[in-house]
Amino acid sequence: MLTIGSTDAMQRLGQRLADAARPGDTIALSGDLGAGKSTLARMILNALGFAGEVPSPTFALILPYDPPEVRIPVIHADFYRLDGAMELEELGLDAGDPALLIAEWPERVGGLAGPDTLELRITGSDASERRIDAQPGHNWQARWQQIAGELS
Ligand SMILES: Nc1ncnc2c1ncn2[C@@H]1O[C@H](COP(=O)(O)OP(=O)(O)O)[C@@H](O)[C@H]1O
Ligand SMILES: [Mg+2]
């Protein structure tokens, strides 16, 4: 469990995640509406070099970002409007995609757990304090331990 005391602290988390992320990874962001999933996704994209506006993909479902605007290819997804019936492949997402997938509402597609997935649950929507509960997949364990250690 990691306590995030402010949007600045969330930004530091976004920076560390951007530094650690590799193509083929998934960062799955859970939490209620307003928890800060899109905010953290935006911070990661900005830390990867994207200078433009990062819209919420609630209606587009998936928004791709490609070099040179970002250091590595990123797909930002929001599965809120899916009911689980739609397959990821139908959205043009396929396991082994050489991009970083940042996915909001992973539970809507049955979860995205796997060795390359970092699952983060954000809770608390009063003021700016947030709590992050992480479930790092095998290939994220050492990286998450380092990030959480540096930020706590
Ligand atoms: N520490 C924080 N981390 C992230 N967002 C925060 C934080 N403190 C306040 N906020 C605010 O909470 C809101 C989160 O909205 P958003 O990121 O769209 O949520 P979600 O995508 O989870 O529905 C934003 O208005 C953001 O400015
Ligand atoms: Mg959102």
TrEMBL record:
Annotated protein name in UniProt: tRNA threonylcarbamoyladenosine biosynthesis protein TsaE
Record organism: Sphingomonas ursincola
Keywords annotated in UniProt: ATP-binding, Cytoplasm, Magnesium, Metal-binding, Nucleotide-binding, Transferase, tRNA processing
Location within or outside the cell: Cytoplasm
The family this protein is said to belong to: Belongs to the TsaE family.
Gene Ontology process terms (BP): tRNA threonylcarbamoyladenosine modification
Pfam families per UniProt: TsaE
InterPro entries: P-loop_NTPase, T6A_TsaE
GO cellular component, one term: cytoplasm
UniProt GO MF annotations: ATP binding; metal ion binding; transferase activity
Major localisation: cytoplasm
